Amino acid sequence: MLDFIVDFLSAVIRISTPIIFVAICSTISSQAGLLNMAGESMMLASSLTGVIFSALFQNVWLGILCGMLMSIIITLILCFASFVMKVDLYLMSISMNMALGGGVIFVMWVLTGTKANTAGAINSLALGNLDIPIIKDIPIIGEIISGQNLFTYMALIMTVLVWFLLFRTKLGLRMRAVGQNPDAAESVGVNVKVIYTIAFMIAAAVGSFGGMYLSMGYQNFFSKGITASRGFVGMAAATIANAQPIGAMLMSFIFGLAYSTTNYLQIYIHDSYLLMSVPFVLATVFYLIMSAYRSRSEERLLKRNRKKLLELNKENLHGQNS
Amino acid sequence: MRKEQKVDLFFELLRVVLGIIIAYIVCLVIIILLTGTEGWKDAVYNFAIGPYTSIRRFAQVISRWAPYMLVGCGMCFVYASGRFSVISEGIINIAPIPIVLFMFMTNTMTGLPKIINLVIIMAACMLTGGVVSMIPAYGREKLGANETVTSIILNIVCAYIGVSAIRNTIANRALSFVASPRYPDNMRFARYWGNTNAHQGIWVAVIGVIVACIIFYRTKLGVEIRIYGSNPVFAKYSGINVRIIPFMGQLLGGLFAGLASCVEVFGAYDQYQLSMLTNIGMDGLLIAVMARKQPIFVPLTAFVLASIRTSAAVLNTNTNIPVELVTMLQAVIIFFVAAEGFLGRLRKRTIIRISKQQQAKEAR
Question: Could you report the predicted ipTM of this complex, rounded to two decimals?
Answer without folding.
Answer: 0.83
